[in-house]
Amino acid sequence: MLQPLRTQPAVIQAAADACRKHFMSALLFSALLNLLFIAPMLYMLQVYDRVLPTAGTTTLVFLTLVLVFALLTLSALDAIRSRLLVRASVRLDRVLSGAILDATLTRPELGSERLAKQAMREFDVLRQTLTGPVMVGIFDAPWIPVYILIAFLIHPWIGVLALVGALISLFLAWRNEVATNAPLKRANEAAGRAHAGFESTVASADVVRALGLRRALVSGHLDDRHNMMQLQTDASLASSGLTATSKFIRLLLQSLALGLAALLAIDAKVSPGAVFASSFIVGRALAPIDQIVGGWKNLIQAWGAYHTLRDLFAETPDDVSVTQLPAPLGNLSTENLGVAGLDRRPIIAGISFAVESGEMVAIVGPSGAGKSTLVKALAGAIVPAAGIIRFDGADQRNWDPERLAEYVGYMPQEPSLFAGTVKENIARFRNRLGEDQLSVDEAVVEAARTAGAHDLILKLPGGYDYMLGLGGRGLSVGQSQRIALARALFRDPQYLILDEPNSSLDAEGDAQLIQTLEELKNRGRTIMIVAHRLSVLPIVDRLMVIQDGRLTMFGPRDEVLRKIAPPPPPKNVISSVKASS
After folding, report:
1. Which of 167, 202, 395 is nearest to 286 (CA)?
2. First CA to last CA across the chain, in angstroms?
3. What is the pLDDT of residues 234-260, one digit of tens each?
4. Are 368 and 548 within 8 A, CB to CB?
5. Are strands 467-468 and 542-547 parallel, antiparallel or unpaired?
């Protein structure tokens, strides 16, 4: 199922290497199991050819003891093989699950929402298939020629029957693949879209209720599910017919083997024991194919999941050891910065500017001009399509993203809080990395005080330990914005990149924000703030005007303001104009 390791991304190769011993051992145990599966056939041969003609009770007892031992060994080996596959599943999860989660968060430029949301779900499909019953059929498949050879040893016609049956079963398996491959892929893609859409709707259930969208969205989701079910039904119907045909062929050939052996026994060409042994050996020869055909749907799903993961890791840059740069002093610049959308069209382009340490810059412009895209790129939330972002002259790409984030406080337009306590959200969940609890608590309280959120938090049930739901539910928009600001200020970063931090604040909150920003500016922090409210203008040093994705003006505040809104003409000029009119 998997491609040669040299063509795979390194992380998938590492996972394959980690599980290779498990699968090789399972393959070895499968060989022993298939050898022991011959024991019942040999037992039947001996009973009918030796015990019955001679009335050999002692022989029967010893043969039975040998059979019992062989079947006990077979059961033990089967249990061990199952445990090996389960352990392989656990090892696979341990190696890949973290890498998958990390890759979906590392790649902000993901072009497919399904690729990001479905990666873990599809990995579970792949993992369960690789370690499930269908793999048993694959492990047993190499023994099909051995069983056919044994059938030839019983009698050439029995061997021909087994060989023809195996070829017919293989043909049906090929037809099954041709008939179901494309429909199953389309069905899986439709299922992924349907699930992702429903999850998105559930996450915004309050908005759905408020806007009266319930019936419309339910209707849309039902249409998606109908399309998904139709595709799954078509694929399942095509597969079920071939699966039933394969099972019919196997049962028919087993019975025909019994009848053919009986006919040969009548002509004294085989012994009576061979009559039953022939049916058994033909059944065992066809069983792996029948098992694989029965699990073909799982194999197709696993193959699609493998390609999804391969694409995910193929486009994810490998972790490389970068030189640990010193803490930045606050200088920030860009050179011909450009960011493209999912359709490859530029959202911002050709943006170049330089900001000195301790300066505060307000970014203004009409809605949709690209202001939020610009600050996302500066904060590392999205990857630029062109140009360079420099922190103290060092290319953003030369920084370890996690280390650079320690010096950058980013507050997005939406608060984007996460499930967890208020303290964990402000602390950026550092407590989960084993950091000193006391140090984290002190930094959290300090950030909250600086953001003017300390008193607000203390009034919450449980204070800093107040638990937020998915998406940070449990707070008002204004409260969420203050918590997000405190998170941006955690451990006093050198850079502050704020996207409309006062959009949901009341007058008191807005005044508190201005006081906070002024204090941070006095500390020498570099601040980039997207602002629609003009209340922040008195404390900014420079203004940056973004229009249609391009930097149209950048300079000292008063100079840019004069260009944006020229001062009114003197009163004496107005009077002369009125007099002349």
Report:
1. 167
2. 88
3. 777 766 777 777 778 878 888 888 888
4. no
5. unpaired
